[in-house]
Amino acid sequence: MEKFESEFLKSKYWGKEEFREAVDESAQKAERLAEDEDFRVAQKPGEKIPYYLERLERIVGKKNPKTGEQSRLFLEKSLYPKYIIKPENISGDYIKGILLGNFAEQRGYERDDLKNEEVRQHVLAQFKQETGQDFSSYEIPEEERDRVRGMVVTDQKARMGSWYKYLTGGETRGIPPAFRYWAFAEMLKLGSFNEERKVFNKRTENTAASFPELNQQALALVFDEIQRKRTGEPSKLRVDDEARQTRFRELLKTEDFGKLYAFALEHVNSLRLPTERLIITKGEWRCFPKDTPASELTTTIDGFNTKWCIAGEGYAQDYLSRSDVWIYFSEDTDGQNSIPRACIVDSGEHGITEVRGIMSNEEAKQHLDSHITPVVAEKLKSMPGAEKWQSIMEDMKHLAKIHFKHLQNEPLNKEDLIFLYEIGRPIQSSGYDRDPRIEEIRKRRNSKEDAPLVLDCKPEEIAWSRDEINGKTKAYIGKLDADIFDLIEQHNIEQIYTSFPEGKVELERNFEAGPITLEEFEKKIEGYNRNIQDESLKIKIYDYAQDMMRKPEFKTLKDREKFTLVRLKVAALGEDFSQNGATTAEIIGTENDKDQRGKPAPFTSGRMTRIGLELCPPETGPYKRLKDLNQPMDKWYRIAMKPISVRPGNPLVFLVARDGRGLWLSRSIADSDVRWDPDGGFVFRLRKKDLKT
């Protein structure tokens, strides 16, 4: 197989200098690292390529030392800068197209409706009537340009990230690395889909369209057919139309990924998904035990648009080599149990590893439909090792109940709304990305009307702008502008949002910290951990955080102090940060800042100072770790503080984190030019003059 893979990539990329150089570098590195000093890599391309694939596997397989999850450094540091469009390269015409589509949607049209010239002219006339301007000469405000540019970049990153995560993750481990490399490399060349020609347009550095959507079922079909062609097996893909069948045979000869994937997408989307029969859940579970021939499984779901990767024999064989696969089939119109509705992967000693449904949209895949959720929940109760899925299934059942109410126009109660708006914690789901029903329901609701019930306020007790704040205000939902926290503190407002429900701002009044050494901190940890049996609930300190506490810059407090902490997202610091995020320097300033008289004034140029926030003393990190013993899973507190440089010289800030391995005092790299995502959170200190002690 290794030679087969090498020859496959050689035929595709050996003519490209960049590929040859990367292969040569990997082979040379393998020789340098070999235990045998006399070891030499043969100079034939086919002999060197496996070392390149091994090196890539190591790079993308690295784990995040804080979370134990797969690192995204290669994606973010190498792939994003090279392949994501630069904001300045997004043309004005493209931005205007986006804005016209938005305008049309707000008036009840679909974006595709604009392809109809009559509809387009009607929308353009409506634009002129409402704005007083011809759209052709309309000058886009700069802030609107920035917003759309940010949206384009975010969409491209999200699409590329979904391909990267999938092709480097565990689900594709049975697919040859050469095929995965080929799919990702070729996907990066694809632009928008040409509906007329049924192919993807070629991508350039100025292509603003997003990357193709990831459809696991279509990709599995491409992998299967390429592998069969390369090993001399006949194709198994069958379509009803003879002309399309002939077209596919011709495409397969070219081994053109973009054209094959486009064909597979079109084929999968033409398959059946009898949504009108989802209400019928009568049916049966069938088990495909470990080591079952893959064809026995794939033939049962052939012809259905499940989006499941196990529709391809290569994937199915890999799954069945290590797991039992359970599929629930519901009744079709003939009374036969033939419609695949849900899939459970049971990996024996590793427990239940996947639960998938057939509900998908462009971004979210393989979620359970509302009708089948109770059937799956009941099945999981009888399966050993399914305990970790119980809370997920409870969320799925609650979401299904809300979805039924939504479809029947029934009112939602307070408990439903708190769950739907994810107050306190996100909704868990079994599919890829957020369950599409969440946005479907939210879009039909008026969050301004729901907010009083969710926040336990009367409508008049919520201020939607600073001018509405008064002595009765219990919640503020609006911009964080200059001195807004003076008003919030003056009226002791507890619930603060920049937008509802996404923009939650957390205040922790009377937080107390004081001088503490590493030795004292570790002694407190030891005392706490002594009475904790569960390893995942113990406090732990990352080695870099230990180094930070040893530095002289760590010691800033002479006595114990009380102050107010403010935790918010980067996007909350201003609309211009809501799409592209912001750098460390833009958020907190730099050590080289100067005041109006030119005198040193460190960390005063950052956006935080405009709304009454300042840096926390570094001691905040250890004290926050000791205090927040019930920190929600995967909710991190990045401390806005003067960065401390340790080995190998990177400036660091404390990160208070929790994952499945414990409660961590860790660190984040905070170079001045590091860019933080809009949803990235920071903990600031409220400016001292505003304190209530």
Walkthrough of the structure:
Strand 9 (495-497) and strand 10 (504-513) form a beta hairpin. The longest helix has 26 residues, at 142-167. It is globular, with a radius of gyration of 28 Å. It is α+β, with helices and mostly antiparallel strands. The model has no long low-confidence stretch (mean pLDDT 88). The chain has 23 helices and 20 strands. Among the domains are: 275-403; 503-690, no CATH class. Helix 1 (2-13) crosses helix 3 and helix 9 packs across helix 11 (257-270). The strands form five sheets. Strands 7-8-9-10-12-20-14 form a seven-stranded mixed beta sheet.
What is the secondary structure topology, with strand pairs?
Blueprint: H1 2-13, H2 17-33, H3 45-60, H4 73-83, H5 92-105, H6 117-131, H7 142-167, H8 177-187, E1 190-194, E2 199-202, H9 216-230, H10 242-254, H11 257-270, E3 283-288, H12 294-301, H13 313-320, E4 324-331, E5 337-346, E6 352-356, H14 373-381, H15 390-407, H16 414-420, H17 436-443, H18 447-454, E7 462-463, E8 475-477, H19 484-490, E9 495-497, E10 504-513, H20 518-529, E11 539-541, H21 543-550, E12 561-569, E13 582-583, H22 584-588, E14 613-614, H23 620-627, E15 637-638, E16 644-645, E17 651-659, E18 662-669, E19 675-676, E20 681-686
Helix pairs in contact: 1-3, 1-8, 2-3, 9-11, 12-13, 14-15
